[in-house]
Amino acid sequence: MGRPREFDEAVVLDAAVQCFWKRGYEATSIRDLISGTGLTGASLYNAFGDKDSLYRRALDHYVAGSIGERIRRCEAMEPRSAIEAFFREILARSLKDEECKGCMLVNAALDVAPEDAGLRAAVADELRRIEGFFRSCIKKGQASGSITPSRSAENLAQHFLGVLMGVRVLARVRPERALLEGVVDIAMTVLD
Q: Which parts of the sequence belong to the HTH tetR-type domain (predicted)?
């Protein structure tokens, strides 16, 4: 029987998220992870395996706590309000991100996923989940009459996924309130 862990896994994953999110996968060294998490190299490897495994666990942790929580909160709202609230949260996060780290999922899509088929599939699945959230809201809104039925729910969901990705990328280099709000405000008009 192995020794019980002497650390809180969620706290360590939070620290690993911050390391990878701030520096990116390639620029984050094992030394950075040891320093950021407070674990020894042996403990880090024993608990999480190699850097790649820790990155995947950190990304899953980020997605569950950020995107997953946002979707759960918004799913409880009226359909149109859910989409608006989703984007309001994205705008608020983007505008207070002083380090311009962006979204770790988007960063993974751009930095790591092109080189790693397994990670590319995981990122694509998460983007499909977000698209599915939009599609579900739109279908419900179309059924209730709060969202126009003049466009398919599938096309509108794809549109909102694209808007989301664009906002998160823009926020990394031009975190300007007027720009980001303008993109979202115009995007929301397709629901009328």
A: 6-66
Q: Which position has the token pair 């380090």?
A: 99
For 114-172, the pLDDT digits (tens) are: 788 888 899 999 999 999 999 999 999 999 999 999 999 999 999 999 999 999 999 99
pTM of the model: 0.88
- Residue 4 falls within a domain, yes or no? no
Separation CA 32–CA 120 (nearest Å): 24
Which domain CATH number covers 24? 1.10.357.10
Provide the CB-side half-sphere exposure for 69 (13 A, CA).
Answer: 9
Alpha helices in the chain (DSSP H): 9-23, 30-37, 41-48, 51-63, 69-75, 79-95, 104-111, 117-144, 153-173, 177-188
SS3 state of residue 108: helix
Of 121, 97, 98, 90, nearest to 108 (Cα)?
121
Domain limits at 142? 9-190
In a domain, 32, yes or no: yes
35 located within any domain:
yes
Question: pLDDT-derived band of residue 8, with 50, 70 and 90 as boundaries?
Answer: confident
